[in-house]
From TrEMBL:
Belongs to the CoaE family. Catalyzes the phosphorylation of the 3'-hydroxyl group of dephosphocoenzyme A to form coenzyme A. ATP binds at residues 12-17. This is Dephospho-CoA kinase. It comes from the Bacteria.
């Protein structure tokens, strides 16, 4: 099996931006958020179950999932969040496992926001944490998602704290700067890690 680098970080940390930089280097990226959207696409059985449970209020005018509306409901109610997780997580994991098995590259970047919370670190050869200050997380996520600040705070509270996340890290990319100003430094760090991961993958292959 290919060498798996688990990429994680809290909401608003810049996971997707950094994953895209690895993708530009030719690295396959398997993103849990992307898969999560795929399994609830318009017309899917899982979307029908969600609508049956929550009602039409979580649909857009075009009958697609209104992720922001659903997010506000489930992060205000722990029981509803657990119901949704129990429905979606098995389907998401099955699809991600399939993509991991089919990856044709020395290593794969597996982007999972809840990598630590869902106890998936044991499925990784290495863990890369995107680290950011909580106040910057709040500012970025509020602007990006156009969500209520209270909802973003509830999401942050549902994730492991910064110290815990860093304790799981084999590698860290600090992303507190404005992305335009800090992008060159991040690109250099990504390139450096890319070379390390290629070497680690080669060593794993030799030891197999």
């Amino acid at each position: 099996m290919t060498y798996v680098v688990g990429l994680t970080g809290g909401i608003g940390s810049g996971k997707s931006t950094i994953a895209d930089l690895f993708m530009e280097l030719g690295v396959p990226v398997i993103d849990a958020d992307v898969v999560a959207r795929q399994v609830v696409e318009k017309g899917s059985p899982l979307l029908a179950e969600i609508v049956n449970h929550f009602g039409d209020q979580i649909l857009t005018d075009s009958q697609e999932l209104d992720r922001r509306a659903l997010r506000q409901i489930v992060f205000a109610n722990e029981n509803e969040r657990q119901w949704l997780n129990n429905l979606l997580h098995p389907a998401i994991r099955t699809e991600m496992d399939k993509q991991l098995e089919n990856a044709d590259y020395p290593y794969v970047m597996w982007v999972v926001p809840l990598l630590i919370e869902n106890k998936l670190t044991s499925s990784c050869d290495r863990v890369l944490v995107i680290d950011v200050l909580p106040e910057i997380q709040l500012e970025r996520a509020s602007k990006r998602d156009q969500s209520k600040v209270e909802t973003i705070k509830q999401i942050m509270a549902s994730q492991v704290d910064r110290t815990t996340r860093l304790n799981y890290a084999d590698d860290i990319i600090e992303n507190n700067q404005d992305l335009v100003k800090g992008i060159e430094g991040i690109k250099q760090k990504v390139l450096q890690l890319h070379q390390h991961y290629l070497q680690f993958a080669k060593q794993k292959g030799n030891n197999a």
